[in-house]
Amino acid sequence: MKNTYICPSCKKEFDWDDSMEETLIRCPVCQTEMMAPSPILTKGAVVGDYLIRERIGIGGMGEVYLAEQRSMKRPIALKILHEDLIKDQAYLERFYREVRILAQIEHPNVVSAIEAGKDCDVYYFSMTYIDGKDIKRLLDEGVKFSEFEALRVCCEIAYALKYAWDKHGILHRDIKPANIMLTNEGDVKLMDLGISKKVKGGEDVELTMAGMMVGSPQYVSPEQAKALKDMDFRADMYSLGASLYHMLVGQTPFPGDNAMEVLARHLDEPVPDPRKIRKDISKNTAELISIMMAKRKEDRFASWDDCIQEIKDIMDDLSEGGKLVTSHIKTGKTRVGIAIGKVAVEKKKTGQPIMSAKMMKVVIYVLLFTICLAGFSLVIKKGMADAKKDRAKNLFNEAVKFIESNPDPSNFRKALVMFEAVQRVGDADCAAAAKGEMDKILDKVQKLKNKKIQDQKRTALEELKKQSFEYEKNGELDKALAVWTAYKSSGPYAKDFDFEISKAVDYLNRKKKVKEDGVD
């Protein structure tokens, strides 16, 4: 399972597959090694009305899990606040503010909030689970967006931001590919309103310190980079333009080795032309990005409506270009019909036969050819679909055979990769079967992790008892007591050994008192 981490050294986000037993992970940017954080919640845990399935993301404020809402029998995304933040009232306010803001947004391109709550010491809120991938992950995986598709995604997000601004006066302030989801059905969803700000309607729930820049450096507007207070919807417009540029050319508009260099380029350098990297981008789209990313907000579009209209106009131009080609392919029948009509009119005027036998044969041949071509196309498509299905079945059988003949845990990763390939290639049935096998493997991995932890606990307790016994045997009861009390204050499994520690301390204290009283 790939999770998103934030490097504590360079502050860059990166993905890491933590489905295996790895204790160290490495930042691909600065190569810093760090401990892989254990999930706050384990699979099968219950929080409120939610049954935890697996962790699907890690962020600065908390973790996100795929869970099942038991009352509704549906998958949801559950955000959990980090334990070390729940004592900070400012973080708690920001956590609940995200829910309050999200609850105000009812739009088809924005994820829907379900509820927020607290279960013991766990603060959570649930939202609609989006079955898909974010744009950043797709770009990292090498997906290349066509100009039309990139504009479509941009237009859908623009509609969501227009609604948030016009209806509720809300700025998102962190528009970037990682916060834009593309579902398996192709729908576009805006994610993560964690640093949004409500600036209209007499309410300002800003929690960021004065002078502190918010947002992601690679997509941040100049006014955000300067931490200006007087911002409006055009800050999000700039970030959306930068995200569109990234989708089109595969890299951010102003790359740099560190955040300060990137911010300086946003402030000082002209907007790059995407056509220098990708020649097939239209001039209109290049100009659209230039306007959306203008340094001065006054030089950007005056409203979201103007921006959306420009995007739609460009899409229409691209679509019309495609329709010309399509109509050229499809108009074999249409042109034949026009030709027949013309001959019929000429017959009425001249008194000649409606159509010669030669012309009739040509028309019939063209019609038959068109029908055959359509039938051949259907046969080819069906053949390709069948071949793809057969390939998925073969991959599935190979994966099952591999894991059955190689049950050692060191082979689990390869087996998961094989089943992931089945999910990509196969139909819904193959994908479901592959997921079932992957769940079995992940269950084995979790059991191995649990067994390892239990073994570590057992070894640690035995070592404590051994040290204590050695001191006790030599009459050094204070040292024996120190072994247990020291572990109680800083030992990794102190909570788990609470009963054994208390029991040992009581025993040693009683023995010490007996010794001090002079009783053998």
CATH topology group of the domain at 132-319: Transferase(Phosphotransferase), domain 1
Low-pLDDT stretches are 201-213, 322-355
Major beta sheet, specifics?
6 strands, antiparallel
Count of helices? 13
Going by helix content, strand content and strand pairing, the class is: alpha+beta
Overview of this protein structure:
The chain has helices at residues 89-104, 135-140, 147-168, 222-225, 234-249, 259-268, 283-292, 304-350, 357-405, 412-425, 428-473, 477-490, 498-516; strands at 2-6, 13-17, 24-26, 33-35, 46-47, 50-58, 62-69, 74-81, 113-119, 122-128, 132-134, 170-171, 180-183, 188-190, 197-198. With 520 residues, the protein is of the alpha+beta class. Helix 5 packs antiparallel against helix 7, helix 10 (412-425) packs antiparallel against helix 11 and helix 12 (477-490) packs antiparallel against helix 13 (498-516). The longest helix has 49 residues, at 357-405. It starts with a strand and ends with a helix. Mean pLDDT is 78; it is low at 201-213 and 322-355.
Task: Describe the SSE topology.
Blueprint (H helix, E strand, L loop, with lengths): L1 E5 L6 E5 L6 E3 L6 E3 L10 E2 L2 E9 L3 E8 L4 E8 L7 H16 L8 E7 L2 E7 L3 E3 H6 L6 H22 L1 E2 L8 E4 L4 E3 L6 E2 L23 H4 L8 H16 L9 H10 L14 H10 L11 H47 L6 H49 L6 H14 L2 H46 L3 H14 L7 H19 L4
Antiparallel strand pairs: 1-2, 3-4, 5-6, 6-7, 7-8, 8-10, 9-10, 11-13, 12-15, 13-14
Helix pairs in contact: 3-5, 3-8, 5-7, 7-8, 9-10, 9-11, 10-11, 11-12, 12-13
